[in-house]
Amino acid sequence: MSDPIPLARPSLGRDESDALAAVIESRRLSRGSQLAAFEAAMADLTGAAGAVGVNSGTAGLQFALQALGIGPGDEVITVSFTFVGTVNAIVHTGAGVVLVDIDPATSNVDPRALADAITPRTRAVVVVHLFGRPAPMDTILALARRHGLAVIEDACEAAGSRYQGRAVGGLADAGVFGFYANKSVATGEGGMIVAHDERVLTRCRQLRNQGNDTVTDTRDESAAGFSARLSELHAALGNVQLARLDRSLALREDVAAAYASRLAGTRGVELPAPAAPGDRIAWFTYPVRLPDAASRDRVFATLRARGIECGRYFDPVHRLPFHLGRHRCLPLPITDDIGARSLGLPLFPEMTPQQIERVCVDMAQALEA
Ligand SMILES: Cc1ncc(COP(=O)(O)O)c(C=O)c1O
Predict the structure, then answer these.
(1) Residue-level pLDDT, tens digit, the chain, 369 residues
(2) What is the DSSP string of 313-354?
(3) Domain 14-100+107-243 classified CATH 3.40.47.10?
(4) What is the best residue among 152, 157, 192 to mutate for testing ligand 1's pocket, by most ligand atoms within 8 Å of CB?
(5) In angstroms, what is the span from residue 26 Cα to ligand 1's centroid?
(6) Number of Cβ atoms within 10 Å of the Cβ of 322
(7) Which of 107, 181, 290, 316 is the most exposed place for a label (fewest CB within 10 A)?
């Protein structure tokens, strides 16, 4: 068998090794200058007042929601076509989850479905920039403003994405990034909340550290808090990767363009739309749609047998065992259709033309079988 092709592969080199060695040399493994620098850089990237590093994107979403006052008795609207962490974060706040359908053109939330889901109990919307593609924030923010809802951007897959020229994450009340190993900024594990309101930032810092914000030296009297800090080693990796983000997104764009031109006209393969004018997609995977669930599963299995890792991105959350029947769901026909036949193809900055060719050839063979 040829060399395996991973779904994602972080770009790690000498700079990362040196940064990790410097942290080890410093003997400062937590709450140090690397975290402060990483937080400052993320606030700078997004135009936010500040940022709070945490140990996962899911924890970041939960803390952002809680810091915005969301809890039991409230309803939070989001999509079912997302990584399960989006919904788990809402569940952990005690709020009710409301799931709405997506726009088939973008796989992001359909703002009309969002409008239909609002009730007097609705307090917030979690907007996912899925696969690094910016969601239609202007429409969503206008709707949220009319109904007095908080908006949290789930930018876990979208570091560096731009909506109408502006960095995602900083467009709403709070934005959350993820740094799991498959992300454009990959620290192994980790996340970051960005926000414009100092009270929200303080509350997030309290929640990540047993209720105690060591930056403002304030304690949260209403909640015990969690243990969800981001270590200096992770932050050091984040600083190196963030400095390279623009270059790495350009390489990802090249891979996406190569897939698009290679697969154009391939029977049975629907390609993702290019970025809308003014937007930048931080390509996280190359998400194609196949004719139906059977062909998607066949392609997935064939590619895996040939050493090519793909993602069934995403099994809709409302169909996952824990979530089945637990949430208020509006009609989800597009989510059900696309969720069953969507496949994430490998995409990473150092992907070679030969690897792209292999993925395309093997996919075409599997489709014809
Ligand atoms: C859309 C989305 N939301 C939330 C998360 C949660 O991030 P984490 O795995 O760091 O908890 C992820 C990523 O992994 C994601 O892709």
Answers:
(1) 689 999 999 999 999 999 999 999 999 999 999 999 999 999 999 999 999 999 999 999 999 999 999 999 999 999 999 999 999 999 999 999 999 999 999 999 999 999 999 999 999 999 999 999 999 999 999 999 999 999 999 999 999 999 999 999 999 999 999 999 999 999 999 999 999 999 999 999 999 999 999 999 999 988 899 999 999 999 999 999 999 999 999 999 999 999 999 999 899 999 999 999 999 999 999 999 999 999 999 999 999 999 999 999 999 999 999 999 999 999 999 999 999 999 999 999 999 999 999 999 999 999 998
(2) TT--GGGSTTTTTTSEE---HHHHHHHHHEEEEP--TT--HH
(3) no
(4) 157
(5) 31
(6) 11
(7) 181
The predicted pLDDT at position 201 comes to 98
Say how far apart CA 151 and CA 145 lie, in whole Å: 9
Domains 14-100+107-243 and 245-368 share a fold: no
Closest C-alpha to 159, from 77, 44, 36: 44
Examine the residue annotation and report whether 183 is marked as an active-site residue of this protein. yes
Instruction: Please give all residues whose beta carbon lies within 6 A of any atom in ligand 1, as ranges.
Output: 56-58, 82-83, 85-86, 128, 154, 156-157, 178, 180, 191
Q: Which two tokens stand for residue 232?
A: 């200096």
DSSP class of residue 251 equals H
Atom of ligand 1 nearest to the CA of 130: 1
CA–CA separation, 148 and 119 (whole Å): 11
Helix, strand, coil tally for the chain in percent (to 5):
40, 20, 40
**Ligand 1 atom 12 nearest Cα:** 156
What spacing in Å lies between the alpha carbon of 25 and ligand 1's midpoint? 31
- The domain defined by 245-368 carries CATH number 3.40.630.30: no
Calculate how far, in angstroms, residue 271's C-alpha sits from the geometric centre of ligand 1: 23
pTM of the model: 0.98
Cα-to-centroid distance, 157 and ligand 1 (Å): 7
Domain spans of the chain, in order of start: 14-100+107-243, 245-368
